Amino acid sequence: MSSENRILVVDDEVVIRELMVDILSDEGYIVESAANGKAALERLSSGDAFVVLFTDIMMPEMDGIELIHEARKIAPSLVPIVMTGYATLETARAAVKEGAYDYVLKPFNLSEIKMAVTNALERSRLQNENARLLEITDLFHISESIAAIRDEQKLLQYVLGAALDRVNADRGSLMLVSENGRQLEVAHSIGLPEGMDKAVVEMGDSVSGWVAEQVQPLLVPDIRDNDQVRRFSRQLPGHSFISVPLERKGANGNTKLGTEAQQPHVLAVLNVTGKRNGASFTEGDLKALSILANHAAAALENVRLVKDLEEAQREIVFTLGAIVETRSMETGHHVKRVAEYCKYLALQHGLSEAEGEILRLAAPLHDVGKVGVPDAILNKPGKLTPEEYDIIKTHAEVGYDMLKVSRGRILRTAAVVAREHHEKYNGTGYPRGLKGTDIHIYGRITGIADVFDALGAERSYKKAWELDRIVDFFREQRGEHFDPELVDIFLADVEAIVAIRDAFPESGSSA
Ligand code: C2E
Ligand code: SIN
Ligand code: SIN
Ligand code: SIN
Ligand code: FE
Ligand code: FE
C-alpha cells in the first residue's frame, strides 16, 4: 500500500533533500522534493495527493511554519513533520504547537525517520477514517429519521431539507413521477421561484426526466461546459447541479408480479443546485445524495404501502362493524358514536391525535366477537339466563382471537379493545377480571363509551335511559366499573358528549 503514500520533502539544502529521498524511497514510498516553500505549494496544488510533508524550518523567503500553514489550506489532511537541528530544537517544538505533527532531528537517524513516517501515516489513516465515520454516522441519523416519518409530504420535506444541508446548497426540488410514468411534477421545493415550484415536465424534455428515464444520477460540475445538458436547462442561477433518481426497490427482482411491473421504476427525482459560495458540486456530494436517495425511496414506498394498508383496514373495520351492528339489531349508529366518544375521551385524557385517531378507527370492532353468539340469545327480548349471559360474555375473547393475528396498527388496537372493553376498574369484569390500570387505556375508554351509548339506546332487552339517570349511574360506578379519572373527564363536559350523540342519531328507531 506504500505506493499510495506520496511524501514531499522540502529543504533549501540539496544534500538533505537527496538524503531524505534516498531513505524514504528505500522504504518503498513515492518521494518528491522541493527546494523552497513556493515550489512545494505549487506541487501540492497539482492535484496529486501527498500524505506526509517533511519540511525544513529555516528557509529563505518562506519558512517551514508558514509553509505548513499554506499547505494545510491546499491539503487539509496532509500530515506535516519538521526537520530541525539541535540549534533550532525550540523552534521545532514551537512548530509542533503551530500545527506540525512531529519533528525529526538532523543529522538523521534512520529508525527515527521510519518511525516518524509510520506514525504520520497512521495519523493520516485515522483522520480519514474519522472523517468517513462522521459522514456515515451523519447519513445514518438522517436515514433513521427518514424511516420514522409516516406522512408522504413530511417525508419529502425532510428529505429535501437534509439533502440541501448535506451538500451545502440552498435550492432544490423533489419531483414525483406521475402514475402513467410520463411526467414529473414538483412535489416539494426550496428556493425555487414562484411558478416553477409547481412545474410539471414531460419525461423526454428535462434534466430530471432524463435522470428518471435513464435511472442514472447526474452530476454537472459546470453547466457551461456541457452542451447536452444546457439544452434542457431552465436558466437556473447556479452553474452546478446534481439530479438523482429515487429508485423503487425490488422492481428488478419482482417483475413477475404484474402490478409491480406496470409501476414506474423510478418514484421521484431529487434535484439540488445553488451550492453556497458559488462552488461546484463534487463526486462526494453525489455519493452522499445517492445514499440519501436510496433511503428516501425505500421510505417513500413504505409510506405509500402503509397508507394503502390503512385505507384497506379502515374499510374492513367499518364493514365488519356495520355487520355486527345489523346482527344485534342495534339499528342506528351505535358503533360510529362509540368511536367518536372514544376519540374525544382519548384526547381529553392526553393521548396524541394519532393515538386518538387509531382508537376511533378501532373502536367500531369492540363487539365483533358477537358474530359467534346465536341470534336467539343476542336478540332475546327479555332478561338472559346465567347460561345465556355466559355465552354472550365469550364475545370479548372471541373478538380478540379474530383480530389478534393482524399486524396492522388499527386491527391490533381493535383486538385489545375487543378483549378489554368489558373489564371493570374494580376487577369484577370479564373475560380476565383485570383491575385498574392493568386494563389498557383503550379498553377503559371504550368501556365507558360503550356503556354510555348502550344505556341511552333502546335494546331488545331494555328501554333507553334518560340522560340524568345515565349521569347518576356513572357517578355511582366511578372507581367501580369505570376508571375514576376517565369518569371525571367524561362528566366534566357531558354536553360535548351529547353533541356527539346528536350528530349520529338513531336512524332506524322511532323518529
Ligand atoms: P350491549 O347492549 O352493547 O351493552 C354493553 C354494556 O352496556 C353491557 O355489558 C352493560 O355493561 C351496559 N348495559 C347495557 N344495558 C344495561 C342496563 O340496562 N343496565 C346496566 N346496568 N348496564 C347496561 P354487559 O352487561 O357485559 O353485556 C354485554 C352484551 O350482552 C350487551 O351488549 C348485550 O348485547 C348483551 N346483553 C346483556 N344483558 C342482556 C339482556 O338482559 N338481554 C339480552 N338480550 N342481551 C343482553
Ligand atoms: C446508512 O445510511 O445507513 C449508512 C450509509 C452507508 O451506506 O454507508
Ligand atoms: C403517526 O405519524 O404516527 C400518525 C399517523 C397515522 O396514524 O397515520
Ligand atoms: C396512557 O396514557 O397510555 C395510560 C395512562 C393510564 O393508564 O391512564
Ligand atoms: Fe361488548
Ligand atoms: Fe357495544
CATH homologous superfamily caption of the largest domain: Hypothetical protein af1432
Task: Provide the spatial order of strands within the biggest beta sheet.
Answer: 8-7-6-11-10-9
CATH topology of the largest domain: Hypothetical protein af1432
**H-E string:** EHEHEHEHEHHEEEHEHEHEHHHHHHHHHH
Main sheet makeup: 6 strands, antiparallel
Put simply, the count of helices is 19
Computed Rg: 36 Å
Task: Give the CA-based shape.
Answer: elongated
Which hetero ligands occur in this complex? ligand C2E, succinic acid, fe (iii) ion
Question: Roughly what percent helix?
Answer: 40-55%
The total tally of domains equals 3
Structural classification = alpha/beta
What is the CATH architecture term of the largest domain?
Orthogonal Bundle
Say what oligomer this is: single chain
Low-confidence segments: 251-261
Average per-residue pLDDT, rounded, comes to 87
CATH first level of the largest domain: which class? Mainly Alpha
Number of strands: 11
Distance between the termini: 90 Å
Proportion of residues in β-strands: 5-15%
Give a short synopsis of this structure.
With 511 residues, the protein is of the alpha/beta class.
How do the helices and strands line up, and which of them pair or pack?
Layout: E1 6-10, H1 14-26, E2 30-34, H2 37-44, E3 52-56, H3 64-74, E4 79-84, H4 89-97, E5 102-105, H5 110-148, H6 152-167, E6 169-177, E7 183-190, E8 200-202, H7 207-214, E9 218-220, H8 227-230, E10 241-247, H9 258-262, E11 266-275, H10 283-327, H11 334-349, H12 353-362, H13 375-378, H14 386-403, H15 409-420, H16 441-456, H17 467-476, H18 484-492, H19 494-503
Parallel strand pairs: 1-2, 1-3, 3-4, 4-5
Antiparallel strand pairs: 6-7, 6-11, 7-8, 9-10, 10-11
Helix pairs in contact: 2-3, 5-10, 6-10, 11-12, 11-16, 11-19, 12-15, 14-15, 15-16
Bound molecules: ligand C2E, succinic acid (3 copies) and fe (iii) ion (2 copies).
